[in-house]
Fold this sequence. Notes:
The chain has helices spanning about 15-20, 40-50, 65-75, 90-100, 175-180, 200-215, and strands at about 5, 25-30, 55-60, 80-85, 105-110, 125-130, 165, 185-190, 195, 200. It has about 220 residues and is of the alpha/beta class.
Amino acid sequence: xxxxxxxxxxxxxxxxxxxxxxxxxxxxxxxxxxxxxxxxxxxxxxxxxxxxxxxxxxxxxxxxxxxxxxxxxxxxxxxxxxxxxxxxxxxxxxxxxxxxxxxxxxxxxxxxxxxxxxxxxxxxxxxxxxxxxxxxxxxxxxxxxxxxxxxxxxxxxxxxxxxxxxxxxxxxxxxxxxxxxxxxxxxxxxxxxxxxxxxxxxxxxxxxxxxxxxx
Length: 215
């Protein structure tokens, strides 16, 4: 099986170079200030300049308004917008119209019922991402990057009209199980390649990409 990787939340040049050299097909830049991985436009532009044409630059936003999207895109060349908040299908369509870019919507999953919403996004998004839903009582929970997993078997055999990625608590040690259980062909990782929240570890990035390469 051929599996691709997205390294998300990259916020320094060493991590970006390591991700690209290791074969990541997607790299994620976060534009959500509460996140320890958040970037300002100038820093993001510098990192984006390190990315070759065959790697897709994805911008992660949480319930962004048009002004923020335009501000970022004026400085940072992106190939995709990742919406990780409570964006409705209508808002996803509006973001596509505003940016002219493909949109990926993150669906937060804890139980099978959480997948029922995906059909409402048919025709509104170009990609889906399935990430772990944070428990209601979790302190300082972020929209994503909480190092949580969910039951990957909930995705087994499921079909959607657009490509999708799997995220949530995945690392070099469990990525093989995640792929086998879910059937995904694209894995997103952020906290799983960090030494601490917001601090990417080049050795962990390399180990993760080597594990992906072996699948």
